[in-house]
Description:
Helices cover 70% and strands 0% of the residues. The chain contains nine helices and no strands.
Amino acid sequence: MVAISIFIFILGLAIGSFLNVCIYRIPREGLSIHSPRRSVCPECEVPIQFYDNIPVLSYLLLRGRCRNCKTKISIVYPLVELITGGLFLLMFYRFGLTLDLLRGCLFVSLLVPIAWIDARWYIIPNAIIVVGLILGLAITLSISLAQGDWGYLIKHLIAAVAGGGGMMLIAVLGSAIFRKPAMGGGDIKLMSVLGLFLGLWPDLLVVIIVSAFTGSIVGGILIARSGKKAHSPIPYGPFLVVAALLDLVWGDALWMGYLRLIGWQ
C-alpha cells in the first residue's frame, strides 16, 4: 500500500511537470506543447537540463533560480506539481486501483491547467476542452463496458449535454438581468466536460451550488481587499474546478449536507 501510494504521488508530480508546460505554452501564441521539445528558461532561453527538471526537487536544489542566469523561478511550478501529486494520491485513497482512479487522475490532469490558465489569462483553451471531451468519452465508455452497463454511458452523455446547456441558459438569463455578459463561453464548454466525467444528478447541481457559493465569497473578499469593483471580471473556471473535484470525492456527503441545511432531510 505504501509503495503504491509513493508511486502514485511521484506519477502525479511527473504529470504536474508536464502540466506546467501546458500552462505556460498553451495560452501563448507561437508556442505548442510539442515545440520546442525541451523546456527553456523564459529569461535567458537556455535549454533546461534533465537534472534541473526533476519535479519539486530541482526547484529546491536550485533555490528557485535558473542555473544559468539566476533569474527567479516562479513558485507556480512546484505548486502545480505538488497539487497534482497530492490530488493523484487523494484519488487513489478514494477509489483504490480501479477504473475510477484512472477517471479521477485524468480529471485532475485536465482541471489543474484549466484552473490556472483561467485564473491568469481569463480563458479556457478549446484545446484542453477537446482533449477533455475525448478522454471523458473514452473513460466513460471503458467503465460502461467494464460494468456491462450501457445506462452509465447514456447518463453521462446526457449530463454532458445538460451541463453545457444548463450553463448556457444561466449565461443568457444572467446577461439579460445584468445587461452584460454573465458567463464566458469557456465556462459553458467546461460544464459539458464536467458533466461527462461526473454524471447528471445530483452532481451537476452540487457543482453549480458549490461554485456559486465559493465564487461569491472569494469575489466579495477581492472586492473588499483589493479594491476591485463589483462589475470587475472574475474568472469562474477555478470555482467550477474546485466544485467538480469536491463533488468527485465527496459528492454524496455534500449533497446530503445541503439537503439537511435547507431542511429537506
